[in-house]
Amino acid sequence: MMARSPSILYTVSIMYLIKTLNNISPIGLAEFNPKHYQVSSETDKPDAIILRSFNMHDFTTPNTVQVVGRAGAGTNNIPIDNLTKLGIPVLNTPGANANAVKELVITGMLLACRNICPAWDYARQLEGDDTAVKTAVEKNKKQFSGFELPNKTLGVIGLGKIGVKVANAARYLGMNVIGYDPAMTVENAWELRSSVQQAEELEDLLSQSDFISIHVPLIEPTKNLINASRLKLMKDNVVILNLARDGIIDNQALAAALQEDKVRNYVCDFPNNLFKNHPKVICLPHLGASTKEAEENCAVMIAQQIKEYLEDGHIRNAVNFPAVKMSRTEGYRIAIINENIPNMVAQVSTVLSDANINIIDMMNKSRDNIAYTLLDVNTEVNNDLLKNMLAIDGVIHARSVPKFV
After folding, report:
1. Whole-angstrom Cα distance, residue 364 to residue 376?
2. What does pTM read for this prediction?
């Protein structure tokens, strides 16, 4: 990893530049006080970047960038590994669009179990006068007969913000619910209804569910999580809903299961040529978070998190950095990003000691190959001090975090 230039601001007359790579809700951008922030899609030396679906893999990140914020949950469009090496936290907004996705999952279950899509398509193609239409409807409506949700079992894979809301909503609809998430947080566990069963193994959930809804990120361990062998474990005529990410299900294996009537319906949020015209598949054009409320929630949440990072050095909902929050003292704050290797804190302390600077408060946390330290010291931070920090082998970035007034 290469060290970046230090960031230093001596006074409270601060002006941070925020670059938007997509249209961001004005309600979210209004979080940035114009006294301290300029928001533009044109600036070429931003302190922070906000985006939604923009592909940053083909984007050259300016060396001034301190933090990147994704107004949404998925970060597949962001080069996380490269930004981590540069010492740039990537923040997202888990849960901000959870209600929108939850409502679409419930919609998908109802569309599937009541055969709404083929029935609607049939009705739109009826011909003749009203009498002929009514006669045809009464003759053929039985082919669209469906079933109801109460007492059916929904399996929810992934009990994060969205999965918990889906599970709770299904219980209110009278469904039995089984959840699976070996890494469930305490916060999400508190929100989950006690009547939701928890599966010890994914295979237990698959074998008992009439509906299966997937709510996990697309990472290496979840790629083709649902494959041919796991499809065979499922009940006949199961309905699978995937509003998370393409790639979590082996599409070829799923196509075979649909052909064999193992899977009754597949509801997804990302059409492809294999499934877009399939009679048993309901493909939606990535509508999971496409509500006015969800876009506003995501924009407000990411703006607040970027402000917390720039103004106080706090990190919340980073996909590549540890979560860090430390109350401010009367001192002067320094934020240091370094490789997660031994003896770093001791070397930082030595630099401060050599400058006759006393530490008032400190917090150090790490995640994988990266570590982050917040320090409050008793003396104003100058550029020479930050340069001495950067001279430590393994330090990637060091900045002064001035207190706003």
Report:
1. 12
2. 0.81
